[in-house]
Amino acid sequence: MDRLRRYILSYTAYGKEPLHLLISSALSRGLCATEREMVPPLEALAQDGLLEADSHTGRSGDPYQPETQVTEGDLLSYIERNRKAGFASYPEEGGEYFFRASRSGRKWLKNNPD
To answer: What pTM value is reported for the model?
Structure first.
């Protein structure tokens, strides 16, 4: 598994993490050069059952909605909508995705230490 995928699993191993923080953190650590580079690993980890996703509208009191599938199109749309804010804060439009390592993802991390 490459460094970016391992980082995503590690970052999300202890609970839900908002996508804007995941992107800004990976960029600041030099794990990816652009936001778009986050899309294939996120999509692959989710498809492999190692990563789970929820969405949230951003309105207080609204519940998190489990996402059975987050597609490349969903993620690219999110990136385009939120690029102006630089991923430094909660998105003003379109809500937020939250990712967490699944039980299988946490097990993979435990069995494959650095």
So the answer is: 0.91
